[in-house]
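Worked Example 4.2. Consider the chain below.
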Amino acid sequence: MLFAALTHSVVIFGVTHMQKPRKKLIVVATAFSLHAYALQGLAEDQSQASKSVALDKLEVRGILPDRLDSVPGSYDLIDEKALMERRPFSIQEALNNVPGVNVVGENTFGLGVNIGIRGLNPRRTSRTLLMEDGMPIFLAPYGDPAAHYTTPLERVQRIEVVKGSGQILYGPQTVGGMINFVTRPVPTDGQVHGNVQATLGNHDFSSLYGTIGAGDERGGLMIDALHKKGDGIRKHHDFEIQEYTAKGQLNLSDRHTLIAKASYFREDSHVSETGLGLVEYNEDKYQAPTGKNDVFQHERTTFQLQHLFQVNEQVKLSTQAYYAKSERASFRQINNPGENAGRSQLERCPAGIGGNGNPNLALADQCGGRWRPREFEYWGIEPRLDIQHSLFGIESNAVLGFRYHKEDIDRKQYRGDDARFQHLGFAQTTLPREDIKIEVEAKSYYAQNTFYVGDWTFTPGLRLEDIRIKTDVMRADGNPQNNPESKLTNNQTKLLPGLGLTWNGFEKTTLFAGVHKGFAPPRPDRDLFAENGANTAVVSKTKPEESINWELGLRSSFFKGVTFESTLFHTVFDDIVVAGPVQGTFINGGQSEQNGIEFGGRINFGQIYNTSHNFYIAGSYTNLFTAKFKKTNAAANIVDGDRLPYAPRHLASLSFGYEHPVGLDARIGVDYVSRQEEDVSFRAGRNSANVLRGVTGDIPSYALINATVNYRPVGSRMTYFASAYNLGDREYLASRVDGMVAGRQRQVFGGIRYDF
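Applying the procedure from the previous section yields the following structure tokens:
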């Protein structure tokens, strides 16, 4: 009863802590509670009727099935041991060893992370579905799939990366891949478990994390707390984040489990979202001219409730409800990089300060700027039925599910030439320069069945996305909007089939192949532009992105001490979306194609030679030999055969390590990214203005050395570790999306972890 009460407290915390919770969420939570207790009685009746039925222990799993040999596509699992072995500083380093994944590191700690898979544009990870325990974690999964938050690695038990046809069961982004962060389970063994970890590093980096949990056969409770801070890549780009999480589990019976999780996250950083112009970058690539005044604030509250009901040995019903609210606000003083002969012009600065509105940067405190506060709120409910059956005499696993998802987005912008505009509270006392309301309603239906026929599995699947997006531009460029074009309702219904197969004719070896139709819904924030002298706002109707994704691959651990996977992939887009010729706009660029091959593997010589001293080699390599547009589109500055932006031909990661039986392991590695090209909107002519702004030109290749040392004495609960990234302190260009942005300098950190 104690843990039942504690878990109930977690549910109450998740609802009451959120600002202005939705009534519908409370209804969903209440329905869950009534449903769970009603089903408890049903389960007990069934238990009395069939006491001989032995049921597996109910557990929350990731997005991959229990039988990994039946997965009809490529995937990667980064477990807790691998995370400790590599000691990644951020999600960027955690994923660098995954084939096909390109992470553009324009930020120190991975805040606003940019992940691209198989040649897709990585900007804010908008084409890769990010989830935590199966719940989407974007600002708004349909309306604004931007990754300004990722689950802190301290809370992660494993990371699942799925790139094949298994995406049919999830959405809405299915054109690239999925990344699911699986958090640690609540302990239920009657013991108290937890750990405390402290980390220090250069660039004023420090981190303190603690978790504690306890439980028994009735359930348990776990609490996590995290605080991190440090300096960013550029000067004055300091950041500070805090996160608090509570997770509770209540085992109502052998057949029923309730799991509730609530979290609160806050980021307060001085990050200039605008990069540098060419002259500025050549002077000092790590400068941020107005970094002292620029601000990025993000506050995020989430709640997740799951109910697992093992109906019998063959049927399991799992239902989850989720709610997330994000409030993000950014302030910037620089409008465009490289203006005024390479000196960044301050946004909305009074004429006369520094001369004719182009002030000396030392007087930035006397200038105004622009705030962009935005609120995102979404919730959803998703029941899913997993059934083991023998229809037509064939052993099968079926998955049937439905998800209802709702989003409300409020986008505002304030501008002023008064220094008081550096404070959001003052800016909000004025009329907004921009005021946009967006509502999204999405219904998703999916069904998939895996047939087991000897050494073969066949997995057909089908997903239906039914989406309604309503956009209302109330104010634009300071003017109220009442023209018909400022409102738009965009309805989309797409049927997404998939088919995968595997063959396990050789021991510990799987040959797999698959094809599925990918889909990325139209984004309302991309359909906004002004015309007629910027006095009239128009909402356009960008087509959704659709793709056909093919895979053929092999994974094996047949040879002792050796594991490897190789995948050949082919992806064709019909209406890929690219940046438009006018800054801040987006249009459909037409057809594109990506072809490549991926390799990943590891050799453990300790296993091969039966010794406790293990030398190992681990690595990955991706050759994206085709990543091109297939048709000329003059409106988008696209020429047939042009390479896709931020699609390096070669990605490679190689590590050499040694594990000693006394508890010492050490690793040194290198990560390589070949040349990349900028957004197509800036390529036409590569004119002098865009060159000065720093937005046009190649992103040269680079290779970064990294190393890790861990020591945990045998029988000890203490672990000592040290890690370094960009050990050679190489200077390199990471991005040109909004001006030139340098990659991170050498980052070294060390720490202590105590487990109990």
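Residues 2-755 form a domain with the Maltoporin; Chain A fold (CATH 2.40.170.20). The longest strand covers residues 395-416. Compare this with Example 4.1 before moving on.
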